[in-house]
Design brief:
- The complex is a heterodimer of chains A (527) and B (407).
- Chain A contains five helices and 35 strands.
- With 527 residues, chain A is mostly beta strands.
- In chain A, strand 18 and strand 19 (295-298) form a beta hairpin.
- Chain B has a 14-stranded antiparallel barrel.
- Chain B is mainly beta and 407 residues long.
- Chain B contains five helices and 23 strands.
- Helix content of chain B is 10%, strand content 57%.
- Classes of the chains: A mainly beta (527), B mainly beta (407).
- Strand 1 (25-40) of chain A pairs parallel with strand 2 of chain B, so a sheet runs across the interface.
Chain lengths: 527, 407
């Protein structure tokens, strides 16, 4: 009887003692969509560049400011400080409230051929450094009588404590004069480029008398202006020349190769003059540069390149600051008057140009009434417009990206499986996709997506895509491959496309889409 | 008077019938698991947190019907029965502390397959997850009861007892679905789900100052009519409920959704780096778990109703019992019981029990009672010896153990 009881007990409890894991584990087979995305025409060229006609035909409009004149190319105001130190010529007694220093200063801005009568300061400082060697409190007053803000002249008053025996007290401050309007015509209004100001020193009216010996320092002041940038200036702007050799990147650096044939291209170059002075612009060259192929195409356009463009002066709409009435010079380029088509078919990464502006070619014809708003000088804008009608052969988009998929418990549980890309292609392109996993030396260690060709949408007799063509691209992902992907720091993405019926030129319509979906068919360990 | 653990076929009397004794101290513990489809091996592997193989799953799949059930309990208690009135030996009082755990579920064939094998096998098909239920309760009871013996005739005695238990809820989880299904596209291009479910659970953070997640009351009622050679018994046990506190959570899912992948709008916006940190958990949570609220929740406890007739044969050494029982408020069915008890000698008694129903199919077991000196009584038994011997195919298991001493 006892033995039976023991056996029974043992049998009952035997299976309930040992627990191998935190919870039971098993594998399940998962079949699920994971990601989906839709590639539209707007994704290809950017919605802001897309123009759609009523029949859905897409036109690309590339509108970009390719040049703006930097403010310091017309003139630049350098920092200027003036120091004044007066020793006592004899035994002097200074009474309380006595003005012991009052020195008008007329500072020349030295603008080299530019003669300004008025300036409104965008940003900058008046600086005063004063050292008090007197053993009484003193008061310094910094006046710029011809600098006003809302009609009130600039004035700053600063007191310095009495100097200790044998020493001095010091004051050093920069006063923000942003927004001040400054008359630069000097005390009598007959000169240009000059700021007039006064620094005055006075002993404290409530203090005591001090007596100075010979050689004792009475005045020790440094004053001037720093970091002055005008918002607006008026006068004669001189006959300066602005030369600019620049480049404008087009954001096509991910195109790795291939050939494209466009139907037509038109372009508009607009030069805007917002300076109140006549000017001449001269574009000496413009090039389409494709560094991947080493191909450079010079723009040939007789009405633009090496052709002097006379730019009329802008006008003011009222008392400054006020909106400017800019002037514009517009040059139209198309297949008939230029080689702009070749320029675009070169698939340039960048446009380079050499551009010169000559100011006041006829001299001071305005009688010192030129003006300038430094935020708005010369600008050149290029607007390229072409119907998205093209034939493409093996156009390659290539990019290398950092990747941070990371690891997680969820991904740890994923076992062997097949991930399938379902592509429903509504574009008349054949598209080859490849994703390469790179090691730390940027060497490909694995390649996903094989076979990797997404079939193009079928075309009707008018070469318009009708419906979508489905392609399934299975990707076997073993656990080791998964770990490789999860640990990768960089991936290389390659997408190569060719239009159907190349070199027949196809119109791209706004309703074309490529639907991509990633479906997972994999083992998942429940743990 | 004592409560046998629910669904265990402990056929001993609920009452202290030895009038020479005044006090009975007893401890009792049991567990059982039973199902109409889940085998002991599968349940054992799951409970022991082992890896469940495809073979294990196949052993269940072949027996699955449209709806399947399983249930289980683990309980223990200590109790004191005494005669409060020394002048009245018919009156008994009862005090006990019980710790009870109960789990109970009903699930469809497709639910099992989906849970343990995944949705791939349902490619192009709809998995029916309707009428799923899962109830799990863990609670304590402080029990106070009284009973009395009435002499009906020279040979007939009627024992009537009742007690009331103060319930202290520890935890619960209750999941129930209405019509629910999941359709998987043949190549996995999309998944359509139609989910209607309610999930209720206790305040896992124990925010109540008393740390009590729930309180309530339950009652037991016992009746036995005993003659010289027969006993008719009827009992209703654990009739009551637990009111879980206001921090209990109810999540209602009443949603039809079409999932065809997480939309990655910026796939073609290749910036300086590619970072994929979408949380699937949060995605699903945000989409489907929107109606979550904290509130008081009341759950009914499993009620055991049982009745039996026992006939003793000459010299009262052999007795036979026929009975039925059922656990109300659960997914179990009526169980039919037949038992034999044989008094081997003054100290030993063995029993054989056979039953069919409840959560499982036919099961049979043994019990042994041994009386040590000084009224120390040891009892061990199992209603599921037969399915436990056939461990791989058997679908129920359990045992009970009791130790008592009377004075």
């Amino acid at each position: 009887m006892k033995r039976l009881a023991l056996l029974l007990s043992a049998a009952l409890f035997l299976s309930n003692c040992k627990k191998e894991n935190d919870r039971a584990q098993w594998d399940v087979a998962i079949l699920t969509p994971i990601f989906k995305a839709t590639l539209t025409v707007g994704d290809l060229i950017g919605d802001s560049l897309k123009m759609v006609s009523p029949d859905g035909a897409v036109t690309v409009v590339y509108d970009n400011n390719i040049y703006s004149t930097p403010v310091d190319s017309i003139f630049e105001i350098h920092d200027t400080l003036i120091s004044t130190v007066f020793p006592s010529p004899g035994i002097i007694s200074l009474m309380p409230g006595q003005v012991f220093y009052s020195q008008p200063e007329v500072m020349d801005l030295a603008l080299n051929g530019v003669e300004l009568s008025t300036a409104i300061i965008k940003s900058g400082y008046a600086r005063l450094v004063a050292k008090n060697h007197l053993q009484t409190k003193v008061i310094y007053t910094f006046n710029i009588p011809k600098a006003t803000l809302s009609g009130v002249p600039f004035q700053k008053i600063q007191a310095l404590d009495a100097a200790p025996p044998g020493g001095f007290t010091e004051f050093d401050q920069k006063f923000d004069i942003s927004g001040y309007s400054i008359d630069l015509t000097g005390p009598a209004g007959t000169i240009y480029n000059h700021i007039t100001y006064t620094v005055q020193g006075e002993t404290d009216p409530t203090g005591t008398s001090v007596t100075l010996a010979v050689g004792d320092t009475v005045v020790d002041v440094t004053s001037g202006f720093e970091s002055l940038i005008p918002l607006y200036a008026k006068g004669y702007l001189g006959q300066g020349t602005v030369s600019e050799s620049g480049e404008n990147r087009l954001g096509t650096s991910k195109i790795g190769g291939g050939t494209i044939l466009l139907d037509s291209v038109s372009a508009t170059l607009t030069i805007k003059n917002s300076i109140g002075a006549d000017a001449q612009a001269l574009l000496t060259s413009m090039q389409s540069v494709n560094t991947r192929t080493g191909s450079t195409v010079d723009l040939v356009a007789p009405n633009l390149v090496n052709h002097i463009l006379n730019l009329n002066r802008a006008s003011e709409s009222g008392t400054a600051p006020a909106p400017i009435n800019s002037t514009y010079y517009v040059v139209q380029l198309d297949n008939t008057n230029s080689n702009i088509l070749s320029l675009v078919e070169n698939l340039p990464e960048k446009l380079t140009y050499d551009l010169n502006f000559n100011l006041n070619p006829l001299g001071n014809v305005s009688g010192h009434h030129d003006f300038i708003y430094t935020d708005d000088l010369f600008e050149a804008n290029l607007k390229v417009n072409f119907p998205l009608r093209f034939a493409a052969n093996q156009i390659l988009f290539a990019d290398t990206e950092s990747i941070a998929l990371g690891t997680s418990t969820t991904s740890d549980n994923v076992g062997d499986g097949t991930f399938t890309i379902i592509a429903d292609n509504g574009f008349p392109f054949e598209l080859e996709l490849q994703l390469m996993i790179l090691n730390n030396n940027n060497q490909a260690v694995d390649s996903l997506f094989f076979p990797n060709t997404i079939a193009p949408a079928p075309l009707n007799g008018l070469y318009r895509a009708t419906g979508k063509q489905r392609t399934l691209i299975p990707i076997a992902v073993s656990v080791s491959r998964k770990n490789l992907l999860l640990s990768a720091s960089r991936i290389a993405i390659r997408a190569r496309f060719s239009t159907s019926s190349y070199p027949h030129i196809l119109q791209i319509y706004s309703d074309y889409e490529l639907d991509l979906k990633l479906v997972g068919d994999f083992q998942y360990s429940i743990r | 008077m004592r409560s046998s653990a629910q669904s265990d076929l402990c056929l001993q009397s609920h009452f202290l019938k030895d009038t020479t004794q005044h006090v009975l101290i007893s401890t009792y513990g049991n567990y059982f698991f039973a199902s109409d489809v889940i085998t002991n091996q599968f349940a054992g592997d799951y409970y022991q947190r082992k890896f469940i193989s495809t073979d294990d799953e196949n052993s269940i799949t072949k027996n699955l019907s449209d709806q399947n059930i399983f249930g289980g309990e683990a309980n223990w208690q200590v109790a004191l029965t005494f005669r409060p009135d020394t002048s009245n030996h018919h009156l008994q009082a009862y005090i006990a502390y019980r710790n009870r755990g109960h789990v109970d579920s009903k699930f469809s064939k497709d639910f099992f397959e989906l849970y343990f094998r995944g949705n791939k096998m349902f490619g192009g098909k709809t998995a029916d997850m309707s009428d799923f239920s899962y109830h799990q309760y863990s609670y304590r009871q402080f029990v106070f009861g009284i009973s009395n013996e009435f002499s009906i005739s020279n040979s007939g005695k009627l024992f009537i007892g009742a007690d009331i238990a103060i319930n202290n809820g520890i935890s619960f989880l209750k999941i129930e679905t209405g019509g629910s299904s999941l359709y998987t596209d043949p190549i996995g291009e999309y998944i359509d789900a139609d989910l209607h479910a309610t999930i209720q659970t206790d305040d896992s953070a124990s925010q109540h100052p008393s740390k009590l997640d729930g309180t309530g009351y339950a009652g037991d009622f016992y009746l036995e009519y005993e003659t010289e050679n027969s006993i008719v018994a009827f009992s209703v046990e654990n009739f009551g409920s637990i009111h879980w506190n206001k921090w209990s959570t109810e999540v209602s899912i009443d949603s039809t959704f079409h999932f065809d992948g997480i939309d990655v709008r910026d796939l073609f916006d290749l910036k300086d780096s590619v970072k994929i940190n979408t949380s699937f958990d949060s995605t699903f949570y945000q989409n489907f778990i929107q109606n979550r609220k904290e509130q008081r929740i009341t759950t009914d406890l499993p009620i055991k109703v049982s009745g039996s007739y026992t006939r003793s044969f000459p010299e009262n050494k052999l007795s036979a019992t026929l009975g039925i029982d059922i656990l109300l408020k659960t997914n179990s069915t009526m169980r039919y019981i037949a038992a034999l008890n044989y008094q081997v000698n003054r100290s030993n008694q063995i029993g054989l029990v056979m039953a069919s129903g409840g959560y499982t199919t036919f099961h049979a077991g043994l019990s042994i009672v041994h009386l040590f000196p000084w009224h120390l009584k040891f009892e061990i038994g199992s209603s599921y010896v037969y399915p436990m011997i056939t461990y791989k195919t058997g679908k129920s298991q359990g045992t009970y153990l009791s130790l008592s001493k009377s004075f």
